[in-house]
Write a structure and sequence with these properties.
Layout: H1 2-33, H2 35-53, H3 59-67, H4 71-98, H5 105-122, H6 125-137, H7 144-172, H8 174-181, H9 185-205, H10 213-216, H11 224-248, H12 256-273, H13 281-290, H14 296-326, H15 331-334, H16 344-347, H17 349-369, H18 375-384, H19 387-412, H20 416-437, H21 440-455, H22 473-493, H23 512-536, H24 548-559, E1 575-578, E2 585-591, E3 594-598, H25 608-621, E4 625-631, H26 636-641, E5 644-656, H27 668-679, E6 682-687, H28 689-709, H29 724-727, E7 731-737, E8 740-749, E9 755-763, H30 771-785, E10 790-797, H31 809-820, H32 827-835, E11 840-849, H33 853-865
Parallel strand pairs: 3-4, 9-10
Antiparallel strand pairs: 1-2, 2-3, 4-11, 5-10, 5-11, 6-7, 7-8, 8-9
Helix pairs in contact: 1-31, 2-13, 2-22, 3-14, 4-5, 4-11, 5-6, 5-14, 6-7, 7-9, 7-11, 7-12, 8-9, 11-12, 11-14, 12-13, 13-14, 14-17, 17-19, 17-21, 19-20, 19-23, 20-21, 22-23, 27-30
Length: about 850
Amino acid sequence: MKNQSLEAHNLRMRGMANIKKTALSIGTTGRRFAMPVFAIAACIVVLLAAQTLSQHVDYHAVVKTLRRLPSSVLAEAILATFVSYLALVGRDAAGLRALGIRLPRPLVWIGATAGSALGNALGFGVLTGGAVRLRVFSAGGVGTSQVARLTAVTGTTFVLGLLVLSGLGLVCSATPIAVMLHVHPAPVFVLGVVLLACVTIALAWWRPDRGPQFLRRFGLAIPLREVIAQVILVAIDVAGAGLTLYVLLPTIDFGLLDFLSVYTIALLLGVIGHTPGGLGVFEAVIVFTVGREVPPAAVVAALLAYRGIYFLLPLLLAGALLAAFEVSIIARRLAPTGLAAGSPRARSLAPLFLGAITFALGTILLMSGATPAFGKRLALLQMALPLWVVEGSQFVGSVLGVMLMFVARGLLRRLDGAWWLATIITAVSLVLSLAKGLAFIEAGALGFLLLLLVMTRHRFDRPASLFQQRFSLSWCVAIAIVLVVAFWVLFFAFRDVPYSREMWWQFEFDEKASRALRATVGAALFAFALAVWQLLRPGSGRLTPPTADDMRDAAAIVRGQERSDAVLAMMGDKSFLFSRSREAFLMYAKRGRSWVALHDPVGPAQEWPGLIADFVALAHRHGGRAAFYQVRPDALPLYLEAGLTLMKLGEEACISLRDFQLEGSQRSRLRYAVKRGERDGLSMELVDPPAVADMLPTMRRVSDAWLTQRRAREKSFSVASFDARYLMAQSVILVRQHGRAVAFATFMTTDLHTEATVGVMRHVDDASPYAMEFLFTKLALHLKQAGFSRLSLGMAPLSGLASTPLAGNWHRLGHLLWRFGGRLYNFRGLRSFKGKFDPDWQPRYLAASGLLGPFLTLADLAVLAGHRS
């Protein structure tokens, strides 16, 4: 008894541990969903800090300083940027060499430059830059795991290099840094010594087979000399980037080395802050330290020029490089490496960069509308254009900037509608940028984007409308952050203008504040209206019932293949999507925004990729999410290629009939069920399809009793329902008890007679408790004798979802429901009953588009399965 109590206690403790694990995983998911709120809050905090720091900064002084930057200074900054990116390419080359990967030099140059440019501009370089490197380096045979290992090496050594440089800067420049921070030099020096000591210990401990746990997780063995080489390249990279900003600043009292120390610390704090390019955190540190030595307006102007030269310029050049590649200026030289213009990996690079550049220029248009035009240029426009043209140009230009930010998402997805809209908006905005204030730099950037769009036209080949797609929450949050910043820029630029209600109705050439206020508010209202419309608009698209020709063609395809569960297509409650050759099809239904295909495509396997792509495009074209329910493991790569998210649903019980028999100790339970059932008066009767019509009244009585006892109603979609027309095409096994029908089950087969699947199952409550075991055992024996090889008993939901240390949140939650959700559904009882037949348990999955797509689809499926059309 004591041992039993101890075992029960251990089981309870393990159960509580699993509950705690699941609660923690749910908490993690909640935190991930809270990221958009955190991003907006962080933006507001940064802007409040910027508001405090900019109290003594004049907008017009910043603009004058920017305009007066000598061309020689700009050339020096561009040269320093080139040196920094040269070191970035060297880091990738050294990392590839350390991993034993050999690639042609053009691939390394393109992948490293484009990846670094996009990673620096958008932030999260591990994800954005890594994705670009994968698409380029894969042309040389480099796989996902190898790029992940390269990213792990360069990311780890970058942080290590920043720590080394920060430590050296704090030690060597302790006094100047202490003066700038108004603290005693001793704590600064001690902090630098501590950083250097930590790095020294880490390097002394380093062995090729004993690196950091993060690297060992990737199976990496990096020699110490390669680590030191990476740190040296990081130093060159940071020095080049710091020199870019240093030459843009006016003369300061401390030297280059002291400034690089401050720059490195600001960069490290920006990395810790996890903002794109350290935006906000980096600027705050620089203004706080350097702003004490030089006029704040000069520091802000230098930071703006630095962002444009070091971040935006390389992004534009990388986009131009890829666009030139698209028109085969470079492709012919790279053709032997496999990175030809038609390469699937190369196809996705141009849309990626065009989307980023379009979003950036949409932001620039919005900021331009929130700032005043130059007085001399307005005077020239006043002599050539009426006032309403200038007013309308600034207002419409800001609205079009918001539209460009929305259009950028469509460009990422290669939608032809997005390309056309982006091209039209860019061309119109180019004209408006001149009409609102002769903004030549803005017009030049728009002309550059227009050229890139024209050069890459053939890459946007998905026939879909832009605004039929759903915009993700993160995309809307990004646009909201840009709008918040635009309002801050508006109030910063017109800080000295007193606000009054009359400002809204003041229309004069010199009323710059009124014009900017109307343009920014109009753009914000347009963005808000578009976001609300996206949120509230109903899902478009309507299902088309299958025609008689569709049913005939689908039936012919079903009969000619071996998957018996495909017979569910004959229920007539699902729509069909045929392949172009009409040799394969998908059966699907729609609920809310979920377009759900049941099972894998039916028909020849070579037709599957095209069908899956067509179905995903169909759902997206109507603003919905595509999903595939109960798909098999062997087809998972096709759904991953289509960009869908996978989730395990459970396991299907498949009896191998060749090995099925009642002899042996493992089948003793079934032998007893058959014998006990016979003693209870059970008998089995097989009904072929022609005779089912005469048996329907008897089956109806059993079915109605079963539904009444369970207070249930007929289901549809993924399960067979009691439909006379459908049942008359199936075979039936009927169980009688003392001559009275007490249970029945239909089973679906195809002309190949290799697999059978149980369809409708019903029984009355007063039947023998062994009636269903008796029924399935007799059915399995009959099918085995008829030459079938498999019998599917259907899926056990949540079966096989383990709660392991590496399991995902869904697996842990599913395991918790499996163990403790008996009141909701008899998960474990269903698995236990089907397990009596010793089946092969085969996993089944849900594939759906979007991060939350699988969960939202499950909610729609619950309604869809319970709806009888």
